[in-house]
């Protein structure tokens, strides 16, 4: 599971770089798509981190 999380983190960083590049070139549609993918990855990463570290869960 840890290697899967690491792959997601690397992919998230790669998409961040692509977003920065797209901003420079003014590719708005590509930028929207990349941001959506990045957000889904971020949510998945957070979910996996909570599962691996139950202390990080917020008590409600």
UniProtKB/TrEMBL annotation:
This protein's name: DUF465 domain-containing protein
Gene3D superfamilies documented for this protein: 6.10.280.50
InterPro entries noted in UniProt: DUF465_sf
Source organism per UniProt: Allopontixanthobacter sediminis
């Amino acid at each position: 599971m840890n290697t899967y999380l690491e792959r997601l983190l690397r992919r998230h960083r790669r998409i961040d770089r692509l977003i920065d590049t797209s901003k420079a070139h003014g590719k708005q549609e590509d930028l929207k798509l990349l941001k959506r993918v990045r957000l889904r990855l971020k949510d998945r990463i957070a979910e996996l981190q909570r599962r691996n570290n139950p202390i990080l869960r917020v008590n409600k």
